[in-house]
Amino acid sequence: MQTMSKPQRFCGREFGADEVALIREIVTTCRGISRRELSHTVCELLEWKRSGGGLKARECLDLLELLEAKGLLKLPGKKHTGYNGPQKSIAPDPGQAPYSALAGSVEDFAPLDVQRVQTREQRDLFRDLLSRYHYLGYAMPFGARLQYLVSVSRPRPEVLGCIQFSSPAWRMKARDQWIGWDDVRREAALQQVVNNSRFLVLARIRNLASAILACTLRRLSADWQQQYGIEPLLVETLVDRQRFHGGCYRAANWIELGETSGRGRMDRANQRHGAAVKTILVYPLVKNAARRLRDGSAGPKPGAGQ
Fold first, then answer.
1. Are the C-beta atoms of residues 81 and 34 closer than 8 Å to each other?
2. What's the pLDDT tens digit per position in 105-134?
3. In a domain, 210, yes or no
4. pTM of the shown model
5. What Cα–Cα distance (Å) separates residue 30 from each residue in 37, 75, 144, 182, 188?
6. Do 246 and 209 form a contact (C-beta atoms < 8 A)?
7. Domain CATH code at residue 189
8. Model confidence over 126-170: pLDDT tens digits?
9. 115 plus 23 within the same structural domain
């Protein structure tokens, strides 16, 4: 693979050697995701946006293909996704009344029905619910992603939860120390970590949140492998400690590792240290997850003795 000797200028922006190196790292570590997903991830990390705030995803895709033509990286094969919807939407009134009036205990409504979001109708519903009721709204996630709608069938069919899993954070000190990663192993194994990047519960039903976590995690590994060809070993999430305690994660046996620096993904200049501190929690999907991520050692096949 060739290296870049001078800055690359494209669509009015100059990309230096450090930025091209980051782009190459993204393409290398995000194995299994589409070109479109790569372009959105690169735009987010490099903050390459239009004046109105939208990502320059189309230009970025052209840049990726140019870099590939110059022998600087290798992109995945092309595939059609058909998605032309908005990249981000936030409800104008996030303080409106809860979506569902159901109450009681989760046992009163069991079993929960978990549906992977795949159709246009499901995508529209998922996006609309997050936009209306999640404090962060809906945003195109980084890299790979799986989304689920969770519903009940009685007393009537009703969606009570939305949950999204996506590509992991690039670096988190507490997580990386818990695993025992150096930079080489982190780059090699990062995509075996999955981030629970959105979680929305739409009814005041006791234990509903931990039940949604449990039933979606039971199918996450198989669905992720089917979609991306990668076996996930660990799930991570970040809980805004100023808003939530994270009790549903602890009730579902997640492990608290510590706190983030508060910078966020976009603060590459370290200008927002401590501005948005979040609690880091993880859930191993297999036995010895940390050891396998650290050492690259093989484990039992999914579903075998776990």
1. yes
2. 999 998 999 999 999 999 999 999 998 888
3. yes
4. 0.69
5. 9, 10, 8, 18, 10
6. no
7. 3.40.630.30
8. 999 998 888 888 877 767 889 999 999 888 889 999 999 998 988
9. no
The answer to whether residues 45 and 128 belong to one domain is no
CA gap 246, 259 in Å, rounded = 13
| Residue span of the structural domain in which 24 resides | 8-69
- The answer to whether the CB of 216 falls within 8 A of the CB of 164 is no
37 shares its domain with 158? no
Domains in the chain: how many in total? 2
Q: What is the mean pLDDT of the chain?
A: 83
Residue 305 lies in a domain: no
Q: Check whether residue 266 and residue 235 sit in a common domain.
A: yes
Q: For residue 192, what are its two tokens?
A: 């075996």
